[in-house]
Design a protein that fits this description.
By secondary structure, the chain is an alpha/beta fold. It contains 15 helices and 15 strands. The protein is globular and about 75 Å long.
């Protein structure tokens, strides 16, 4: 009989639950040779499917850059390159208290941000959970819920608010009263879905992404819908700016680190923003805005290579993810790299091997047959498992799927997770490289503010992005450095509300 030994330890699951693991596992050298060989053979096949060569990455980058240019020239492109009407960088002189509301992919967040200048701020925030029903129900109900949460937050937290734009003196007593009669606080509304904007306080929803599908919302002005919800309950709030979280991330990160020129989000969805010259945004030349002004562009690059699928290395698993999604043919780039989909890609590979009689023989695998049951957080745990016996991998498969695994299988699963995660990071670097090339940032270098669960929590993701930039640009790729971004959907939204109020009061631009 092969030698075996008892393994023990614990694993912290995505839910926060800690499981004690006790199991008998075989040493690798004692596993049947055929089992190890079979897993190795399959791994080589998946390595060829999921590995991106530097040459392929440079080709994708070039096509990506051309797509970005096209989106600036013509309206209604696959990658829409949305003008945000956020003009210029923050000065650091923005002061006072501002509200921010962030309608994200998982939570609704309400923030009170106190801007203190010189890259400093204080934030008070509360999160409210969104149900799947709310994401798919009527759009007006969704915005009514947002307004109700905003009301709850104001009633709970607004006993310490200065006038917008008013700087508090050091050690000044904080007022105990609520907002003064007639006073309205500026609100930055972070709405992280592609909108067509011609003014900063309006935006027509182009399409839902990240699993949302609220009815009677696409094609409508979401800022106007939210204003009506605010008016229904008579809140002392003025919606000043409608922004994307990536736009806010760019502004907030630059507020703290002026070397920041690009912002990226790698989380449930994926996106990027950067600052461009108005004169180079040909599709808005008719608006008569000063061509030398600078404006943030919300790329909405998750849609890159949608519909025609000419550039991205889609596998048959990616095609299944696309075809079974709520938006087939759309968001092709996002479906290869975002946190919403990586676990599902891995699950489809595992299910294929189950069907081929390679994995879990004699075990009931019905729990793995449910789409999206394999969370992307599992990939993070598998890659970061420090134990020789891969106890975290044992915990995932036994606790969630009631399946026993051999050591060879667990090593295979971890290697497969690494392939899927590495491909996502390297494709992400192609998008960053496209903006760097377009804007000529390579020689002097720049900092990229990055946020999202993949960037922040997935082990090695940032390092793989940097590795990809070097593969694309050579040693000069080291001039492009990512860093953890500031809170774009909260702090960035508040800063933009402050910048917009200042410009409106001064009458600087007609399109603010």
């Amino acid at each position: 009989m092969p030698a075996s030994r008892r393994g023990s330890g614990s694993v912290t699951l995505p839910s926060g639950q800690t499981l004690a693991i006790h199991t008998r596992t075989q040493d690798e050298e004692d596993l049947p040779h055929a089992t190890k060989k079979t897993m190795a053979d399959h791994l080589r096949k998946y390595e060829s499917l999921f590995t991106l060569t530097p040459q392929r990455m440079r080709m994708i980058t070039e096509a990506f850059s051309e797509t970005l240019d096209l989106g600036l020239k013509k309206p209604d492109q696959t990658v829409p390159m949305i003008p945000t009407y956020v003009f210029g960088w923050p000065t650091g002189d923005e002061l006072g208290d501002y509200l921010a509301l962030d309608l994200g992919g998982t939570n609704l967040r309400v923030c009170l941000v106190s801007l203190q200048g010189s890259g400093k701020f204080e934030i008070t925030q509360t999160k409210y959970r969104l149900t799947e029903e709310q994401k798919q129900d009527d759009g007006e109900k969704l915005f009514d819920f947002c307004a109700e949460c905003l009301q709850t937050f104001i009633l709970t937290n607004m006993g310490s608010v200065s006038e917008p734009g008013e700087e508090r003196k050091e050690n000044e007593a904080v007022p105990e009263a609520l907002l003064k009669p007639g006073q309205e606080l500026p609100l930055g509304f972070t709405f992280s879905y592609p909108c067509d904007q011609e003014r900063i306080d309006h935006g027509k929803l182009i399409r839902w992404t990240k699993g949302f599908g609220a009815l009677r919302t696409e094609g409508r002005d979401v800022a106007d819908m939210f204003r009506k919800s605010i008016e229904k309950i008579n809140l002392p709030v003025k919606l000043t700016a409608l922004i994307n979280d990536t736009t806010g991330t760019l502004i907030a990160s630059h507020y703290v680190n002026p070397r920041t020129k690009i912002a990226v989000i790698f989380g449930t969805g994926c996106n990027a923003a950067y600052m461009d010259r108005v004169g180079d945004i040909e599709k808005i030349n008719h608006l008569g805005i000063d061509p030398d002004a600078e404006m943030v562009i919300n790329c909405e690059w998750g849609a890159f290579d949608s519909f025609h699928h000419e550039h991205l290395p889609r596998t048959k698993y990616d095609q299944v993810v696309d075809e079974t999604s709520n938006k087939p043919e759309e968001q092709a780039f996002e479906k290869l790299i975002s946190g919403r989909y990586l676990g599902e890609i891995l699950r489809l590979v595992i299910c294929e091997l189950i069907d081929e009689g390679v994995l879990f023989l004699g075990q009931n695998t019905y729990k793995l047959e449910k789409p999206y049951c394999f969370d992307t957080a599992f990939l993070s745990l598998m890659e970061s498992d420090p134990t020789d016996e891969l106890l975290m991998v044992i915990g995932i498969f036994t606790h969630f799927f009631a399946l026993e695994t051999t050591l060879a299988e667990r090593q295979f699963f971890r290697a497969l997770a690494r392939l899927v995660g590495r491909r996502a990071a390297r494709l992400s670097s192609c998008g960053i490289a496209a903006i760097v090339s377009k804007m000529g940032y390579l020689e002097e270098g720049c900092s990229v503010g990055a946020d999202g669960s993949l960037y922040n929590k997935y082990p090695g993701f940032a390092d793989r992005v940097h590795e990809g930039l070097v593969d694309i640009f050579g040693d000069k790729g080291r001039n492009i450095v990512t860093h953890h971004a500031e809170d774009g959907s909260g702090v960035g939204s508040a800063i933009i509300a402050a910048m917009t109020k200042k410009r409106k009061d001064a009458g600087t631009y007609a399109h603010v």
